[in-house]
Design goal:
The radius of gyration is 18 Å and the shape is globular. 27% of the residues are buried. A six-stranded antiparallel barrel has the order 1-2-3-4-6-7. The longest helix is centred in the middle third of the chain and has 15 residues. It is 30% helix and 23% strand. It has nine helices and seven strands. Strand 3 and strand 4 form a beta hairpin. By secondary structure, the protein is of the alpha+beta class.
């Protein structure tokens, strides 16, 4: 881990000791890490605070599939080795969402705008041809667009917290262009070497499912 990485995520105090690095490496080689090894996708987008949608935070989702209808994602603030685990998101199909009562459905958000706007991306590995990866990403978006997410963040890194303080925060997603702070996507796109506008065009063919009225309550208060 580079010194620069430590500066970016200096969440506590001292860097990891040599002893703990050795123990970490040994445990990683010897133990069963099946739940983590089941992670199959890295998605990047932004979450807004349900209590204050003017606050948003970049979210790197590392997701695994429990079934065809349920996914679970660990949310990190960056894709770097010392990234902070800031939250979790569960994604379910519309079929399961329809089985929830009204009060529960109000805790979930849609992904339609995130997909159609090009905001939601699946960062590609270095060295892989762009065209091939974008095809895989677009096929993934065909599935994600119909899912509903329930997200809680435990660590409010956007306000500079050095530790996960206070109560967990229910999060939502952007649902229209005018909600997005100026320059937010441009800065993210430049870091990842992608274009949200180009992705928007490539996803134009993806059919938009109807969003249930109980979802996305962040913007209906």
């Amino acid at each position: 881990m580079s010194t620069e990485d430590q500066k970016i995520n200096d969440a506590t105090s001292a860097p990891l000791s040599v002893k703990n690095k050795i123990l970490e490496t040994g445990a990683g080689l010897a133990q069963n890490l099946a739940p983590v090894e089941a992670i199959c996708a890295h998605l990047n987008a932004f979450h807004v605070y349900a209590s204050d949608p003017h606050r948003c935070v970049e979210a790197n989702h590392y997701c695994s599939h429990i079934s065809e209808d349920v996914r679970q994602c660990l949310i990190y603030d960056t894709p770097k080795p010392n990234a902070r685990l800031i939250g979790v998101e569960y994604m379910i199909s519309a079929k399961l969402f329809d089985t929830l009562d009204s009060a529960e459905r109000k805790l979930w958000h849609s992904h339609v705008f995130e997909v159609k706007s090009g905001m939601l991306i699946m960062p590609g590995p270095e060295g892989l041809p762009t065209a091939g990866w974008e095809y895989a990403e677009t096929k993934e978006m065909e599935q994600v667009i119909g899912l509903y997410g329930k997200t809680y963040h435990f660590w409010q890194v956007d306000r500079g917290d050095k530790l996960p303080l206070g109560e967990a925060q229910l999060m939502g997603s952007f649902t229209s262009q005018e909600q997005i702070p100026e320059g937010l996507l441009k800065e993210r796109d430049e870091r990842y070497g992608v274009s949200s506008e180009q992705k928007k065009e490539k996803r134009r063919y993806i059919e938009e499912p109807e969003v249930q009225t109980d979802a996305d309550q962040t913007w209906k208060k």
